[in-house]
Amino acid sequence: MKKYGLVGYPVEHSYSQDFFQKKFKKLGLKDHSYELFEMEFLNEFPALWLKHNDLKGVNVTVPYKEQVLKYIDKQDASSIKVGAANVIHRKGGKLIGYNTDYMAFRKSLKSWIGAFKGEALILGSGGASKAVQAGLTDLNIPYNQVSRSSKGGDYTYDQLKANPEVIERFKLIVNTTPLGMYPNIETKPEIPYQRISKGNYLYDLVYNPEETIFMKMGKKYGAKTKNGLEMLELQAENSWDIWTS
User: Are both 92 and 195 inside the same structural domain?
Assistant: First the structure.
């Protein structure tokens, strides 16, 4: 048996298991499985590999994409570039980290908005945010970052609330936080949505539900919106390429 899986907390929101189960069935790989490894604490990560000798690789989701680096043996150039890993491959007895989020976001965004002229605003400062930053840098799109504290970004949510006109600078707004993700579907990033217009693009890395409150608020004021499902599928395909290389 060749085993793969998803590490995070929580993980029940993810479509990754369904994606890979369908892929294995399509390819006729009856000796392959994809499991969910929910970990409240990441110090359980080393024991996972000892327990499952047939585990070939895992995806890593929130909130562990940065923390996982201390548990692996080597980082690929993509992981070094981003400073986070969402794919781990066990190869030659070593755990190697990669970042397919960054490559997937870059490809998905470019196919959606084409040759973009303007600035981007990234909501969040975690591992997913770092992947988005790397993608925007590759596409020569300048960006600012919003975080809960002044240490985490260029703006805080409180600063945007106090100065809502600031958001008008940014044609592209990317949500990298888990706000709005199942099961907490009523949550959203607290930004001045009333300052959004039909010239805006709102990209939400959340894909479950299909349309988040963040996206609905953007649509309300005329913005174009996109969820993170395509990005998930692209990064999953890249994960598979890494695991089978």
Answer: no
Is 198 one of the catalytic residues?
Answer: no
Query: Could you say which of 30, 51, 65, 161 is catalytic?
Result: 65
Task: Please tell me the predicted confidence (pLDDT) of residue 12.
Answer: 86
User: The pTM is what?
Assistant: 0.94
pLDDT digits (tens, 9 = 90+) for 118-159: 999 999 999 999 999 999 999 999 999 999 887 778 999 999
**Could you tell me if 115 and 223 lie in one domain?**
yes
Q: How many domains does the chain have?
A: 2
Domain extent, residue 154, equals 102-230
Parallel, antiparallel, or unpaired for β 94-98 and 87-91? antiparallel
